[in-house]
Amino acid sequence: MADRRARTATLLMHCPDRPGVVAAVTRFLATHGANIVDLDQHVDRAEGVFFMRVRWELEGFALDAEAFEAAFRSGIADHFDAVWQLHHQDRPLRLALFVSKMSHCLYDLLSRWQSGEWRVEIPLIISNHDTLRPVAQQFGIPFHCFAISPENKAEQEAAEIELLERHGIDLVVLARYMQIVGPALINAFPQRIINIHHSFLPAFAGARPYHAAHARGVKIIGATSHYVTEDLDAGPIIDQDVTRITHRDSIKALVRKGQDLEKLVLARGVWAHLQRQTLVYRNRTIVFS
Amino acid sequence: MADRRARTATLLMHCPDRPGVVAAVTRFLATHGANIVDLDQHVDRAEGVFFMRVRWELEGFALDAEAFEAAFRSGIADHFDAVWQLHHQDRPLRLALFVSKMSHCLYDLLSRWQSGEWRVEIPLIISNHDTLRPVAQQFGIPFHCFAISPENKAEQEAAEIELLERHGIDLVVLARYMQIVGPALINAFPQRIINIHHSFLPAFAGARPYHAAHARGVKIIGATSHYVTEDLDAGPIIDQDVTRITHRDSIKALVRKGQDLEKLVLARGVWAHLQRQTLVYRNRTIVFS
Amino acid sequence: MADRRARTATLLMHCPDRPGVVAAVTRFLATHGANIVDLDQHVDRAEGVFFMRVRWELEGFALDAEAFEAAFRSGIADHFDAVWQLHHQDRPLRLALFVSKMSHCLYDLLSRWQSGEWRVEIPLIISNHDTLRPVAQQFGIPFHCFAISPENKAEQEAAEIELLERHGIDLVVLARYMQIVGPALINAFPQRIINIHHSFLPAFAGARPYHAAHARGVKIIGATSHYVTEDLDAGPIIDQDVTRITHRDSIKALVRKGQDLEKLVLARGVWAHLQRQTLVYRNRTIVFS
Amino acid sequence: MADRRARTATLLMHCPDRPGVVAAVTRFLATHGANIVDLDQHVDRAEGVFFMRVRWELEGFALDAEAFEAAFRSGIADHFDAVWQLHHQDRPLRLALFVSKMSHCLYDLLSRWQSGEWRVEIPLIISNHDTLRPVAQQFGIPFHCFAISPENKAEQEAAEIELLERHGIDLVVLARYMQIVGPALINAFPQRIINIHHSFLPAFAGARPYHAAHARGVKIIGATSHYVTEDLDAGPIIDQDVTRITHRDSIKALVRKGQDLEKLVLARGVWAHLQRQTLVYRNRTIVFS
Predict the structure, then answer these.
(1) Structural domains for chain C
(2) Can you tell me which residues form the catalytic site (chains A, B, C, D) (predicted)?
(3) Which of B200, C16, C178, D148 has the highest local Cβ count within 10 Å?
């Protein structure tokens, strides 16, 4: 018996803002028998752009993915000059986790997978250190170590890309992976690599943000999950959260408090992606509700 | 020259959930020349109810309020069995503020009005004490004192209702008004009376919530803005917020910290109403974005 | 080589508020060679009670635990009529985790232990269901299942107490244990049982708080960690936290968002206990910083 | 009859961390008859610095300010190489408010003063524009307009300093004053000028932070109150707070939401100063509880 959760399709689209887009899309879907489950739209008036996410039940819907593509293109997309993606939620997404030496985000993600909280597959974990191999083994997930040096970086990342593609990875999660990811890997997974940065970006981008936060004497620290682009720590932000600190908190205390934030904010960022709630436009994200 | 902000209409509606509602409504609006500015919809699957808020520019829209009513009823509402309200934002709403002896919410609301942050009119302030008359005078607003006793309560509230109706009041704001409002007044302004309660409801309903919070030893206190119904402190919640406290905070400190919450949460609740973002259904609010 | 973290002692005390307590205690410690690391005091003026936590390095301190007891009693405690506890942080505390069917808090606590984030020992996990045995096994921790029925409850809890005492358990953590704990167990571990309740207490005490929160239409949900007393969900609160929700959140979404809160708030409550930062007085906690 | 609140003294001090400081200070105070009301201490282990705030009742205390100075210097300060300030809370502090064209912080501060929530005096308001003169007049406070141009800036600020000193101003509050304050004014009021910056510093320092936040696509905005130093927006932070935003929020909406934060964070920063809870050390603040 099929999983009930699998039986929906999600359309993400944006186009120049013009009257009648919502009417046209919802009429198109209704015509083909869709029962709309969620619809969220947004108009950015400053940019003049219309954004929409709509999700409907596949039960009773007349078009398969191929037929949808042809019909939607000619019926809607060409007319409104729309950029769009269709996602059939008929199989679990496949995640690759990248880690280094810190385990808190790794444990958190693996727990969500193993407990069934998230309906995903995690075929492999990649690291630049061997430290966390026992955690991967304990959860029964293949662990691949690619030590990175300036000399071998391009070559190692090429091997990683090959591995990711061979395993049909949909999304790469950098779960406190302490290496700057190179352009080849980024370009192989555009808007499909999510990183957790341990600060409230754009404050304290780069290395050692807790040290920098302590030195500046801020009263609140944060964490940021974002899509990775070639600009370090400058990609589109998916989620952020913060926690209050005081002068009593040493750098070590900031690290401890911050790790709880990192787990939460990374998980929420990945969850939004899994739900196909995110759409990137000009280095910002629309996170539909 | 007309205020640009005045030139929109907002439709709030709910109906049994059926396919095609969004399509029908947006097509209806498009047919009559509406340029949709905001559209937010929600389906409560457990209840099987569809909710929608849609706002459009009146510029170029073919129907005035009367013509809309006739066309929308026959074209949409009867077909989908919809309950709906149309709001033309072509004039400022008229607010009456009810206060007792504490001034913090009163100052906050008057400041938002006088500074132009809110485009509203405040024709009168009503109180059961004379204490805050000087504040009303300073802001140039007529102040009406209705002392309330068990014996005269019904009579006094009848006089208040008469006064409110004579001044064409759209919304009553209980800005720390320390009297239980009677049924006649509540029924005269259904879903048009907003109260601020100084706790995180449903915790600490009733009198002296800061004392109760202190006695219980909670680590967070809150405030709640809600529509007033005949059940005390049990009406539909519009907004809530909280702040962290510690064992160091005396009851006096809770009051001081809580007052900042009360100002904020009341203002946000009133703002949501002014924007016509709120819809009440079975003692809960939909607060559209 | 000894763990640096182990080399401190912590004194928690309270007494009637009188001038000179801080001076007397700090002079007492200085006289015996203590280097104070942390000192936090609080006076509850309404109750007339003085509270203090002081932590000092054992390196160079002249008194062992026994000698401290004698000297502190005659030198300070008797004079000021003080209630006090001394904790030597020279060994990891021993925790027992109680669970039922939900795993999110269990994974979180086990991860903090296994990663070394927390310096504790977890000699056993107790459950009233067999569901989470695989998780315990995966982390290599003995799992004891005590099925509870109204008939066998007292007997089973007696067996649990025996097991806990045999393993030298310092702290019992109810990590979403869905059974009301009986008085014998509570009295065997006074102020040494911490529970996570999945609401912002005192709102929604008892069963199914997410359902109740949804029905009431609150805009914020919470979680509460507290010491267990014989009054259900009414023991001294250690920590609370909240997250914002909207009308869009189904009960299922509340559960999902709430579980992240539960993990965090339980972990923070246990951490405060581990650090000996908590002191209970009249059903409230002092949580020293 | 004297105001009960006036009858305390507060000592703020820091010195190299050595054993026995707390004991020495509290013994010193006890010897002279002080009943300690609050004591909060902090040791920065990384810096090796001890910080303390202690407040006691003047009733029954044997030393007046002058006698205290002599006795404390020879008895404590010289011995421990301490830097210290004594504050007798026997009169309201005198505040000057600096504003430009935006009124939200001004209304908020004036309301706290006029309602008696804050026991302060506000002898004057200074502005570089005439816009808010009516607000000052409404609250009965003298309003001084000093239009600033690059040519006259030094001269105008000299006049402002003269005015501030003539009125015995203790604290300058920049309540959205949109002018960079020059070094002469800063040096005339070291650690006695508090500014509100409308971002979560160090993110978005400088002009137009809401525009920058919108462009970067952050999911949370903030506000920061800080002491003013010659480095723009880089002085010691007293308080910060944040609020969640979404892609739906236009720049105008950020401004609206941010103004509520600004009011709150500025008020809390000023309050902490009024309570003598703040101590600046190396561009960071200790904010005692």
Answers:
(1) 4-88 (3.30.70.260), 93-287 (3.40.50.170)
(2) 233
(3) B200
